[in-house]
Specification:
It is a single chain. This protein is an all-alpha fold and about 425 residues long. The protein has 15 helices and no strands. The chain has one domain. The longest helix has about 55 residues.
Length: about 425
């Protein structure tokens, strides 16, 4: 029951954060227009890129070790933070070098001063979303982590409203709002961790080795994940222009709302599987979650497909209607990833992160190849088709590997069952009993 409650609270928090992110996105999109939105999307790719390259997977590593309880918690946390602050400093240097020597090639048509502002976001984002969140997830303080995520989103909306709408600070205002919201949240999380988490900063070579040996394997997967989901934006900007990136950013952002439930479940499942000693429990839990999330995501995709034209026009204005068609195509891949994400969390939590690296690398190569082939042919629709095809193939491969590891059948993992439908009916009945006299 505690596990289910964590999924529900994480999902509800994710929904609230999504609503707040929509508010932020609408303000930015309407204030900046498609081209400004595209430049903003490209600038925000810089911290995303550096964050992925420099975290070395140690966040997932500390989640794994804290959940298993195989290392002393206070020393593990202290050594993790030592490594984390070193990586934060390194991330800034790497980001500055990237701007200095490769900005024109990697980020054409993007002003350098905006990229330098994006550089400030990098250590703040690493501390917030990777290092501190890793500790909270590892200790299974799920609700605490949810609260801090919500706080950061609230501050972000407040400062975007003030800087972009009230003071008319355009792209630089949106970036400043992100910096301020992360800075405040980092301070609050630092105070909470100092007060509530035992930490020993005694350097232990063996613990550092354990952190990095597992982390590097996960890191390769994270890098592959990033390039799988973001390399298309670089290629699109190369072949077309920032305006096309702006349209695709709205399409992608709208379609990925379907991921909310799977993201919530995956985040909670990973430490849960790591802490389980019974193979039968693992074999039973993951298929139930996967097939139900796949089913709910499919229903959500159908609804978004039917409402997408109205939704994008209403929220972002008619100038963003070119985003509708790529959004509809992306829904295919988004539903596939909803299931793949759960299965991959299980595989990593079993201590086999390298498998996910291989699978994701195949998808990256396929995605890049399809983008290069399709974008010159059908433009922005080519990006959407490339992503959906690559994501769908990745689900098939991941499902095959998971079934081989777990002993479950693909049918049990992906297809909804009668007993699942019965659970939905009982849940609806309980709601009627509770709320309808």
């Amino acid at each position: 029951m505690k596990f289910i409650k964590h999924i529900i609270t994480t999902f509800l928090t994710t929904v609230l954060i999504f609503i707040l992110s929509i508010v932020s996105s609408v303000i930015i999109a309407r204030a900046l227009g498609p081209e400004g939105q595209g430049i903003y999307t490209l600038v925000m790719l810089l911290p995303s890129l550096i964050l992925i390259l420099t975290n070395l997977g140690i966040s997932r590593s500390v989640i794994y070790h804290l959940s298993k309880g195989d290392l002393p918690g206070d020393v593990l946390t202290g050594n993790f933070l030592i490594a984390a602050f070193i990586l934060m400093a390194a991330s800034v240097l790497i980001g500055y070098g990237l701007i200095l020597f490769g900005a024109d090639e990697i980020f054409p048509n993007v002003p350098h001063y905006l990229l330098l502002m994006g550089l400030v976001i990098i250590p703040l984002q690493l501390l917030f979303s990777q290092f501190y969140s890793g500790i909270l997830y590892g200790l299974q303080k799920i609700n605490t982590n949810n609260l801090f995520n919500l706080i950061q989103s609230i501050f972000l909306v407040i400062f975007i409203f003030l800087l972009v709408l009230v003071f008319k600070e355009d792209i630089s205002g949106a970036l400043t709002a992100t910096i301020i919201s992360l800075f405040i949240t980092d301070i609050l999380m630092t105070l909470w961790i100092i007060r509530n988490v035992p930490i020993s900063f005694k350097f232990r070579k063996d613990i550092q080795k354990s952190i990095f040996s597992f982390g590097i394997k996960v890191h390769l997967t994270n890098v592959m994940y990033f390039f799988r989901s973001r390399v298309d934006v670089f290629i699109l900007n190369f072949f077309l222009n920032p305006q096309a990136v702006g349209f695709y950013g709205i399409a992608y952002g709208t379609a990925e709302t379907i991921w909310m439930l799977s993201q919530s479940a995956g985040n909670v499942l990973s430490p849960k599987i790591s802490s389980m000693s019974s193979e039968e429990q693992k074999k039973y839990l993951t298929p139930i979650i996967t097939r139900n999330i796949f089913f709910i995501s499919l229903m959500g995709a159908v609804a978004l497909f039917l409402m997408g034209y109205w939704l994008i026009g209403f929220l972002y204005s008619e100038s963003y209607l070119p985003s509708v068609e790529p959004m509809k195509i992306l829904l295919i891949g988004v539903v596939a990833i909803s299931a793949e994400r759960i299965l991959m969390s299980d595989i990593i939590a079993r201590g086999k992160p390298i498998i996910s690296t291989y699978l994701t690398a195949i998808t990256v190569v396929l995605n890049i190849g399809l983008n290069v082939l399709l974008i010159p042919w059908i433009g922005i629709l080519g990006v959407a088709w490339a992503s959906s095809i690559a994501y769908s193939i990745n689900l098939i491969l991941t499902l095959a590997v998971y079934c081989r590891i777990s002993g479950n059948s693909g049918w049990d993992v992906i297809i909804i069952k009668k007993e699942d439908i019965k659970l939905y009916k009982n849940f609806i009945k309980s709601l009627k009993t509770r709320f309808i006299p």
